[in-house]
Amino acid sequence: MADSKIYTASTTAPVNIAVIKYWGKRDTKLNLPTNSSLSVTLSQSDLRTHTSAACSSIFTENRLYLNREPQDVSGARQQACFRELRVLRAALEAADPTLPKLSTYNVHIVSENNFPTAAGLASSAAGFAALVRALADLYCLQNTPTELSRIARQGSGSACRSLFGGYVAWEQGHAADGSDSLAVQVAPASHWPGMRAAILVVSAAKKDVSSTSGMQATVATSGLFRHRAEVVVPARMEAMKAAIQKRNFEAFAELTMADSNQFHAVCLDTLPPIFYLNDVSRAAIRVVEEINRVAGKSIAAYTFDAGPNCVIYYEQENEAAILGVLKPYTSGVSGWGDRRETVHARIPEGFNAALCEPLKEGVSRVILTGVGEGPVKTEESLIGADGLPLAL
Amino acid sequence: MADSKIYTASTTAPVNIAVIKYWGKRDTKLNLPTNSSLSVTLSQSDLRTHTSAACSSIFTENRLYLNREPQDVSGARQQACFRELRVLRAALEAADPTLPKLSTYNVHIVSENNFPTAAGLASSAAGFAALVRALADLYCLQNTPTELSRIARQGSGSACRSLFGGYVAWEQGHAADGSDSLAVQVAPASHWPGMRAAILVVSAAKKDVSSTSGMQATVATSGLFRHRAEVVVPARMEAMKAAIQKRNFEAFAELTMADSNQFHAVCLDTLPPIFYLNDVSRAAIRVVEEINRVAGKSIAAYTFDAGPNCVIYYEQENEAAILGVLKPYTSGVSGWGDRRETVHARIPEGFNAALCEPLKEGVSRVILTGVGEGPVKTEESLIGADGLPLAL
């Protein structure tokens, strides 16, 4: 009798926000980067993708649903992840013939984000990390997260970093087949648990230029890009790892801000120029600079991915100073939660509050989060007994 | 009997807008640049400084008036120009003892701009070029504009290029004393007389960060800046000179846009980052890109100095195509003059006119001009018989 069982596994996976930015591929098919990068994984309490994977002999095709909408699975990125994970599963089955032949079945993937898609909030990173983690669990793979990062990276470059919690490096590697282009944990969240992140969501509209096409335009046309990739970033990677090991926030902050600025600089040095920052983003930069000026040292660090949203890293001990400045200008938007009561407006003496005015109209939501853990297995499945997404 | 005569000379001098940008000094006292630059001199019909210089034994101090307001003349830049020009005059007097001893007299300088000061419209370039040219005429100096450029450069770097009309290079030079950091004419205006410039004045407010402090912050903190100065610009200078020699507008346009973007990229790569472009500037870039896309080739080139104003270069033959797109969105502001009747709104088929919308609110004035001549001597003096500024 044929095995008609539906096998399932579910996981959640986090978003990560890079502090040394990934921008530029040396191999677009394998998503091999032109430089290493480093990120902080954010707490899944606030930002996560929840993904269930199922496979069964009765499934007639591969399917993928994102926020209940069917997605195209014929893309090379999804196909690469499916194929590579099946290869690992097939090896297990070959070694132990009693195992069900899951590698021969079609899969159904059902995925949900608790945040807006493609608004520069690293949704594809969490999405592909969750997809790879859920399939690896479904297939009972014993591979380490670093080994799986080789596969997640083929889905979306930065996804490889979302397979870990804490502080994560993606080492660019040099092999043509990408076998050494892998993510490794620099330090777990518990090493520096007080790292917080306040995200000012400036626009949840879809981006103008996708990261993939944008970064390749930069590689092709920027006169400054190679110098960044070959000279600037390697030194910054070492400095950033040292800052994290020593929990040196000032060094962390200064490297983070410089690298965000340089990433957007090479975007601007692209033909045609790519703009992700807008006037509200720039106002947020000035606010962070003013917070640091008044504090007499860098207690906050801004960074921007491929979008206008500002991510502000700070340490827990300075929360009152950071959020106290942001609150009076953003308290009308969602995301404050409990802190609407516990955080008090606090504009320090000598602070140029006029710099904050553009935040009032420009910020549509805040997300108050911090460093967090890597993917977590869950029993909560998004897939019903029929192998299709559960109704909401 | 003492000579109490008031000697005067008057000149007008043009603005220039660089297409290969000057940004960064290797010597801040002598204004020696880290890279060569190249500009187009704009017509004095539209933008000019008018300056009269006077000297007399009866003047008790050096004085400078800009737009009728007394200015500080104790600054090192003004003092350097006065001193260097006196040295040249003193040499003439030593060679011919019959000459009046103008080199021993105090000077009065009276200067007027026909455009807003310090709004990113290169007012200091025109101002120092006019000051040097007027004093050189007052002193009857026979030095060439290139020789005088050594002096004007000490007043304001880009002023050295405003001593010429047409297409002008400022060769960075290598000597420690700056003796080879000089401006030369690449081609006169008559070589390529059809070059036009439409300036969209986005804000006439004073700048946030002055060029002088901004460029040195870039030199000190940008990881990309040296690569630009040492590798990118030298190649672009040669390519730009060739484009001008051949009147190859497409090459001229692509180099101009790329270099403007790269200048603003190294500003963004500065700590703290320097922003001169705002959302209206970026909209203007998208409009120019769309004009070129619809034309199927680069018929317009944007460039931005240290401010948000957009300068769009184009050739006369394409005026209807360029201004026809701009007019419907900016016809309410001053600067259209005769062209308010002669230029007709013309949005080509397939043109994404939504890109132009931000110009409606964001552009406060247009200046429609073109390539022009260098400083011109004038009999119209701004200085009265008392040696003071004439009443308006």
TrEMBL record, chains A, B:
**Annotated pathway, please?**
Isoprenoid biosynthesis; isopentenyl diphosphate biosynthesis via mevalonate pathway; isopentenyl diphosphate from (R)-mevalonate: step 3/3
Which organism does this sequence originate in? Discina gigas
What residues does the Diphosphomevalonate decarboxylase-like N-terminal domain cover?
A: 13-183
**Pfam name, any one:** MDD_C
Specify the domain of life of the species encoding this protein.
Answer: Eukaryota
Provide this UniProt record's keywords sorted from A to Z.
ATP-binding, Lipid biosynthesis, Lipid metabolism, Lyase, Nucleotide-binding, Steroid biosynthesis, Steroid metabolism, Sterol biosynthesis, Sterol metabolism
Q: Does the keyword Kinase apply?
A: no
Family that this chain belongs to: Belongs to the diphosphomevalonate decarboxylase family.
Q: Which InterPro entries match?
A: GHMP_kinase_C_sf (IPR036554), Mev_decarb (IPR005935), Mev_diP_decarb (IPR029765), MVD-like_N (IPR053859), Mvd1_C (IPR041431), Ribosomal_Su5_D2-typ_SF (IPR020568), Ribsml_uS5_D2-typ_fold_subgr (IPR014721)
EC number(s) on record? 4.1.1.33
Quote the catalytic activity from the record: (R)-5-diphosphomevalonate + ATP = isopentenyl diphosphate + ADP + phosphate + CO2
Q: What is this protein called?
A: Diphosphomevalonate decarboxylase
Does the record's keyword annotation contain Metal-binding?
A: no
Q: Which residues form the Mvd1 C-terminal domain?
A: 198-376
Spell out the molecular function terms from Gene Ontology.
diphosphomevalonate decarboxylase activity
The enzyme class is lyase
